[in-house]
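Here's what a typical entry looks like (1-aminocyclopropane-1-carboxylate synthase):
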Amino acid sequence: MLSKKVTDCNAHGQDSSYFLGWEEYEKNPYHETKNPNGIIQMGLAENQLSFDLLETWLEKNPDATSFKKDDQSIFKDLALFQDYHGLPSFKNALARFMSDIRGNAITFDPNNLVLTAGATSANETLMFCVANPGDAFLVPTPYYPGFDRDLKWRTGAEIVPIQCSSSNSFKITKSALEDAYEQAQKKDLKVKGILVTNPSNPLGTTLTLHELDLLVNFISNKNIHLISDEVYSGTVFGSSNFISIMEVLKNKNLANTEVSKRVHIVYSLSKDLGLPGFRIGAIYSKNDDIVSAATKMSSFGLVSSQTQYLLSEMLSDQKFTSKYLWENRRRVKNRQETLVKGLLKAGIRCLSSNAGLFCWVDMRNLLSSNTFEGEMELWKKIVYDVRLNISPGSSCHCSEPGWFRVCFANMSDQTLTQAMKRVKSFVDFMSKKKNQSRHQPVLQNSARRTKSLPKWVFSLSLNQLEVGEQC
């Protein structure tokens, strides 16, 4: 008596280890004083590093939160019916903010913006606009685990992975693109486009100009679409600059061609401003048909007028946004370096990154076997014994076991320090355990000699083991 969406809930992807880790965290969340032995959440790509900057702006601009303009209340105007096109003032401010993030190398026309309730809604809406049920999108691996839900669950679209490897730091290659396209054809799937995240989630890297050129050339030759999810474009902190796909089109003189009508950007204020609860997302497209259809679809997930007004006031303050972007990047960079150094002390290395709120961490040396079973065994130890929720690479469809996404911006400095202590203790215990197993035959041969040792030696060893198991 119920729909397939209800009876086939597994299609949502909720049984992924990415979501299961969250469930375990929610059962036993860490708190510095109330629950210091709880699970520390390192699976949430949330930016909590710059709230003080936003709160200071709000204190200095009380009219924005009081819904006043020139000392006159506009509450009634905002509370009454608004159509789904969005407030012009907000769309203008958002378009300008997107240009500022990209160093004003390109400009965005607010008439080509469609507001959505977050990037999740934006990506799904584009799927509805471009793909029919059963059509496929190619997505480079590793990719954000939520895409299995966002792109597929309600749309009926399919994902075909573009297999990338650690041999070249997971960069997209021409051969990988062609292989993915051929795999889709073998499955009788019609490829409608490619979706990339730039900067990448979970890699924390920006796409190179070479990769972007490959993508543009590929979609031109195959006559398909390209969706560039650029929600982390304001968190680029390394020496490599962020290059938007729109900048590539401009430099290749494709800005006003048919190819440009098949290139679309997804953006959000959830990451760069740290406002996921405000549900502010956007689609940018030069395809009039997609803008028209997506605008109509947005009526199923509108952004409140009050939210739009508040953020239009904030984003229109360019002196503030300029200061915010600079300071936020500095803080994200410092926090990323703290994580990388903390892991390095434990003998764990990360993929070199320059953006995002996470690191792609190489734990292959800790695997009991170089398999995904070995990865899941290690992940369970980290969640239940070390009490850290991190995302295993298999949940991101990584083709190589032993990689993990570890987030660093959703916690305090003290909590991150505690997390690194736990990791160090765990790795030390694992190394000690491995060394003991190597010398086990020698220990067995000397069993007679141990009988003469005092009882306190055995008691001390047992206590050390218990401490190690608790870390």
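Confidence is low (pLDDT under 50) at residues 442-471.

More examples are in the samples folder.
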